[in-house]
């Protein structure tokens, strides 16, 4: 059998062996052919991998077709920055006057009180060093006074807010008075029945502190009645708020009613009731009665009933005056010397808003507070 070197081609070997009739020789022929084919394929792949990439051709093509230069970016236009807004720092007691409840003001008029930016800087300065309220324990309550003013060329009646400051070591009263021309009987009831009470005022700089840790020297009369809940109240209850007056009992000062000698009379006559006042010191009852008979406001057969009605009203008024004097005397006797001195040294200050371009100028100022407090020691 002829031997072939490994360097001889596979086709020559196959040609020689295929002519042999020996089956073993034929099988060997086929195996050698398969090995040769596989070897040729592997060599082809190896040679293909070893071939270098045509780098020069790529460089030439890049030179022939140069890339366009990049477009210049459009410069960004900065948005105009808005000018910074500057807000004035809030003053420490700026909302003090707003926090005091305007006692006796009708509910539907409350919004009109705050329609102007009233300036109570005089009240704020009173608490500063050298002011009349500096370093003192003060109780504040508000009220309103209807006043004819001129603002921006227009004359109209506005409800001017007023703040009353009471310098006292203890609350001046825990009661409220309910009195009006329409109500025959005066009521003195606890503040809490009208959802009112003295509460500490917290200055703006202390709003983040705990109230119980602050030693507040300023207390305001506050009302927790919500306006939204008024629709659930009876009309008489709502009207009571309009007739409320901050109450103060001054045992060392005689009540103005103690010297009053007139009594209101509302006699149910026919066809119309008789409404008048009888002065038991100046009027003579017989002449007083005949005057209404002559005017045909009172019939002859009602004369005796009318006279008895007037006498009863006079007796009630005199009894009330006598009881008031006795109660005042008893109160003074039961007071400690410390309380007596505190009441005697109490001072009332009445603050009106100062002139401001945002609100009407209030030129008319009254020293009178109400029938319980009387007059203020000073108006500012």
UniProtKB/TrEMBL annotation:
Any keyword Coiled coil?
A: yes
For this UniProt record, the keywords arranged alphabetically read as follows: Coiled coil
Q: Which residues does the annotated region (Disordered) include?
A: 41-89
Q: In terms of domain of life, where is this protein from?
A: Eukaryota
- Annotated coiled-coil segments of the chain: 285-341
GO process terms (BP) = regulation of cellular response to heat
Q: Which PANTHER family match?
A: PROTEIN HEAT INTOLERANT 4-RELATED (PTHR33704:SF1)
Which protein are we looking at?
A: Protein HEAT INTOLERANT 4-like
Query: From which source organism is this entry?
Result: Clitoria ternatea (Butterfly pea)
